[in-house]
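A quick aside before the break. I want you to see a complete sequence-to-structure record at least once, exactly as it would be stored in a machine-readable document. Don't worry about memorizing anything.
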Amino acid sequence: MLPARLFHETEFAGHGTASETICLALRSAILEDMLAPGQPLPQSELAAGFGVSIIPVREALKHLEAEGLVAFLPNKGATVMGMEESDVLEYSQIRALLEEQAAGYAVQNMNRVHLARIEDAYEAFVEGVSGPNGPVKSGALNRAFHNAIYAAADKPRLLEMIDDLHVRLDRYIRGHLRIEGRKTTTDCEHLAILNACRAKDAPLAAKLTRLHILDAAEISLEIFRQKQKQRGVK
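That is the input. The structure line, written in C-alpha cells, reads:
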C-alpha cells in the first residue's frame, strides 16, 4: 500500500504533462524517503491514486528507471531501487573526481557575472538552510551553489554526468546536513571554495571541492549504515 500523502500532495497544475507531474512526485517521494528502497510501485494503484490512466504512470516509471531510482523486477513490477554501501561509495568517489575537474575548469574561465551568481547561491544556501524548511531545501540549495560554480566550466557533457550522479546519490548525500553542527562546517567549506574562486585559484578550488564532497560522503555513508541497521539489512 502506497502512502496516501503521495497523492494528496501532488497537484496537476496545468503546465507539463501528467507523466512529468507524476515523475516529479515519485522522485521527490523517493529522495525524501517517503518511499523506501524495495517499495513496490503498482501501476494500477498509482494510476488510481493520481486519477490518470496507466500510460502516464508507465512513462514516469520508465523515466525514473533511467535515473536509477526505479527498477522493473521479474514477477514484481516496478520497485524503488536502493543501493549497496559499495555503490554509494563508488559513485561518491567518481562524483568527487568529476566535480574536482569541473571546479578547476570553472575558475579558469570565471568572470564577474559568474562570481556574482556564485555569491548569490552561497548566500541563498546560508540563509535558506537555516530557515524552518531548511532540511527539505538543503539538497537543492547545496546543488545550486556547486552548479553556479560549474556553469563557468563550459563543459556541458561533464556537467551532464555530474547531474546524473547527483540524482542517483541525492537521497544518500543530503542527510549529512541534518546533523547538528554540520551546517556550520558546510558553510565554512563553501566559503573557502568561494574565496578560492574570488582569488582565481583553480587548483585550490578543485582540491577544496574534492575534499568537501568526500568528507560529506563519509558522513552520509555512516548515516546510510545506521539506516540499514534500523531496517535490519546486513
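Two observations worth writing down. The chain has a mean pLDDT of 89. The longest strand covers residues 70-73. We'll return to this after the break.
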